[in-house]
C-alpha cells in the first residue's frame, strides 16, 4: 500500500480507473432509467395492451377496448362518431355588437316594416364604419329575439335573428351570437338571470343551443 502512495504514476492510474468506472456506472443507470420510462410511456400510449396466444401458438396483441381492457368495453359503437366543426373567422376582425333596444327595436309595438328598416340601418351603419363582423345579442328584456321551443320569444311577425343574419350577409359580414348562459326562464316564463344553475337548467341550455344551431346559419 505504501508503495502505491509513493508511486505517483501508479496512484494516478488507479484513481483514473476508479473515475472511469464511476462514470460508466452513472451512464448505465441513466440509460436503464430512460429505457424504463420509454417502456412505461409506450404501455400507456398503447392502452396497456397484452398478447394472447392463438391456437397455433402465435402471439396476437390485444387491442384496447377488448376483453379485460380497463379503457373500453366489448360493445361496439359506444362512442359517437366525431362530427367535424367548422368556424368561419375573418383574418382581421372588426366587430360591432348589435343589441335590441339600442341599435334596433327602439320601441315596443313597432310594425314589421319599421323593424326591418331599423335593422337594415343598424347593419349599414356598422358597414360604413368598416366593420366586417356582427355579434348579435340574443336577449331583449325578458325575452329572446329568435324562435325557440325553450325560451320566451319576443312577439313579432318577423323572425328578428333570421332577418339580422340576412341583412349582415348582404353586407358581406361575419355573424356571431352572444349567448348568455345565466339567463333562463323563471316560474312565470320570463327570461331572468339565475344565480345558481342545476342539472335541469343545463339540460334546457343544451337543448336550446342545439335547436338554435340547427335553425340559424351563423359563423
Describe the structure.
By secondary structure, this protein is an alpha/beta fold. It has two domains: 1-38; 95-215, Transcription Regulator spoIIAA (2-Layer Sandwich). Helix content is 40%, strand content 14%. It contains five helices and nine strands, in the order ααβββαβββαβββα. It has a three-stranded parallel β-sheet with strand order 3-4-7, covered by helices on one side. The chain is elongated, with a radius of gyration of 34 Å. Mean pLDDT is 79; it is low at 39-53 and 61-72.
The helix/strand order is: HHEEEHEEEHEEEH
Number of helices: 5
Strand content: 5-15%
Q: In terms of structural class, how would the helical and strand content be classed?
A: alpha/beta
Number of domains: 2
The CATH topology of the largest domain is given as Transcription Regulator spoIIAA
List segments where confidence is low: pLDDT < 50 over at least 5 consecutive residues.
39-53, 61-72
CATH class of the largest domain: Alpha Beta
Provide mean pLDDT, rounded.
79
- If you compute it from the alpha carbons, what radius of gyration comes out, rounded to the nearest whole angstrom? 34 Å
Supply the CATH architecture of the largest domain. Answer: 2-Layer Sandwich
The total strand number stands at 9
How far apart are the first and last residues' alpha carbons, in Å? 86 Å
Coarse morphology: elongated
Helix content: 40-55%
Side-by-side strand order of the widest sheet: 3-4-7
Amino acid at each position: 500500500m505504501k508503495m502505491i502512495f509513493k508511486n505517483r504514476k501508479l496512484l494516478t492510474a488507479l484513481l483514473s480507473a476508479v473515475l472511469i468506472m464511476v462514470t460508466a456506472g452513472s451512464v448505465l443507470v441513466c440509460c436503464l432509467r430512460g429505457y424504463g420510462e420509454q417502456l412505461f410511456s409506450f404501455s400507456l400510449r398503447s392502452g396497456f395492451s397484452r398478447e394472447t396466444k392463438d391456437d397455433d401458438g402465435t402471439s396476437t396483441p390485444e387491442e384496447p377496448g377488448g376483453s379485460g381492457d380497463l379503457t373500453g368495453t366489448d360493445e361496439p359503437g359506444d362512442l359517437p362518431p366525431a362530427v367535424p366543426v367548422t368556424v368561419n373567422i375573418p383574418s382581421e376582425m372588426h366587430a360591432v355588437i348589435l343589441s335590441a333596444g339600442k341599435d334596433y327595436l327602439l320601441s315596443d309595438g313597432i310594425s314589421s316594416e319599421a323593424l326591418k328598416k331599423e335593422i337594415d340601418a343598424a347593419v349599414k351603419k356598422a358597414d360604413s364604419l368598416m366593420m366586417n363582423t356582427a355579434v348579435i345579442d340574443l336577449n331583449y328584456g325578458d325575452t329572446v329575439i329568435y324562435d325557440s321551443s325553450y325560451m320566451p320569444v319576443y312577439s313579432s311577425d318577423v323572425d328578428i335573428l333570421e332577418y339580422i343574419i340576412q341583412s349582415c350577409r348582404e353586407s358581406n359580414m361575419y355573424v356571431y351570437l352572444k349567448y348568455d348562459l345565466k339567463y333562463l326562464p323563471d316560474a312565470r316564463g320570463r327570461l331572468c338571470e339565475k344565480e345558481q344553475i342545476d342539472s335541469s337548467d343545463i339540460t334546457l341550455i343544451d337543448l336550446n343551443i342545439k335547436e338554435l344551431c340547427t335553425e340559424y346559419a351563423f359563423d
